[in-house]
Amino acid sequence: MPPFAIETENLGRIYKIRGTKKEKAIRKELVALADVNLKIEQGELFGLLGPNGAGKTTLIKILVTLLSPTSGLARVAGIDVSTAPQLVRPRINMVSGGESSGYGLLTVRENLWMFSQFYGVPSKAAYHRIDELLKRVGIFDRRHTRSSDLSTGLRQKMNIVRGFMTDPAVLFLDEPTLGLDVGASREVRRLIREWLDEDKSRTLLLTTHYMVEADELCDRVAIINQGRVLACDSPSSLKQRLQKEAIFEIETSALNGFSATSLENFPGIHRVSCQEGDGSATLNIILKEEAALAVVINTLTAADIRIMKLSKHEPTLEDVFVNLVGRSMADVETAGENG
Amino acid sequence: MDEQVPVKKVTGWRLFLKTILARAYPRVIGQQRDTSWMLFDVLMPFGSMVAYVLVYQAIGAPQEYVGFVVMGGAMTAFWMNILWSMSSQLYWEKETGNLGLYIAAPGSMMAILLGMALGGLVATTLRALVITVAGSLMFHVQYQIASFGQLFIVFVLEMVALYGMGMMLASLFLLLGREAWHMVNLAQEPVFLASGFYFPIKSFPFWVAAAASIIPLTLGMDAMRQLVFPSGFKIGFLTVGVEIAVLLVLSVTFLVAAKVLLAHMEKLAIREGRLTESRR
Lengths: 339, 280
Hints:
The structure holds 2 protein chains of 2 kinds. By secondary structure, chain A is α/β, with parallel strands linked by helices.
């Protein structure tokens, strides 16, 4: 049986935060990862889904040998990333969303060639592969453009090509579609899927906070928050966990100080998350039994809140997150709970 | 996607060599594409050089002193390159995200540093040549080379030691954030004085000159002045043979120190999470 492409055992990482001179005596610690246990098979497209600061990037940094764990174990292609990083590196590559790597004075093709050399790809093969991938992502005509002249989206496409061109056994994509428009994101997602389908031994770990991306692409998803993996399964299985429950979205007028989460105190109401806008609010409500909807409507009406739209929908990964954390991903990010 | 044939990637010394050449490439090609170096790296050192020449001429110093100054002016390009494009370079690479990619790649960081050094050396040699030719023509500097062989050896050793020092400093600066910028600023001017860029270091007390010799440019310039100017040997700090021997020791020391420090600093940076995390 081949080793897991990625395996972690009780993986943890604590950052020591340096304070100001006055605070020097007080060494703060931030738990970025705690007891992360993952087993990712070869050929899997695995997603890490969580809000900003949840620990996704920290986990990737450990797996690509840029950061050592403070506890536990991590293996990539069966190799311990802490004790034998030099054996892990030829087998991997990584791309981060919004990165500005490379040199602005070099053209797209030159930048990519340069990085291919650090992986030992012969120049002729490198140019062939670069050109083919540039065509795939639709920027072949920009191959002789200096990378400093590229827009954010085009630069990100160049970065994506950099990840694929060395043909790694395990590819790490950290928020790969960050900053891309809808069309470009779709192209990148298609490229990711095709790359995996082409060779079943390839593995891809993707971090994202776009639910749709995780839902559409990933074979399995781990939902992560505050450094802990809260659930790990296929998107459909995760959503099925909520099938027994009814999920409603209610658009209302301004809440005027009414606490939407107080609805959770009523029987039959499992979770309530709320996003307030300018003069309006959107409530996402998970009910254990549909009959509890009447209580919600009555309570809102009594609080002088007007219901403008009410709809029932199938569970999404966002609902799964709300169910696990108690708040929407946007709420968690706004509250800055993840360090 | 077209069916891709698996590519046999090279490893070992061939990967090392590829990494060096690839990292040197942006420096060499960058010089052709961004010509602002003519202003910052040629005209500005040239201005300082002219000022010293005029002072020497005003006080009636021997004509060879003008030659010393022209050589010193040319060598400033190397010192600036070491400070700004070697020592503090990894800070910039960290900010742009390149550093993480370099370390996560199978090519060694030592090869990356050697590539930076090689590219910087090639690009800076051209700048130094421009200053030398322009200064020599403008001030009618006469050269009388005593030994081409020794001159070549001195220059090569001086550059190996100097860029070895740059690599060592780059390793030390791996852990630094923005403070690297200030430290580089701090090191710039004192070395112009201590290394005798515009005057013979024999003017210093022996121990001051000896301490200044830790910077390879000090003995390198002193030896080159002895070898290219007829009266150079009279103002030489040590004999050329001794200076070559010291430069050889410095070359080996700095390169070994760079390798050891780089390995240590890389481990430390990975442990402390400072390769990519400038906010923590």
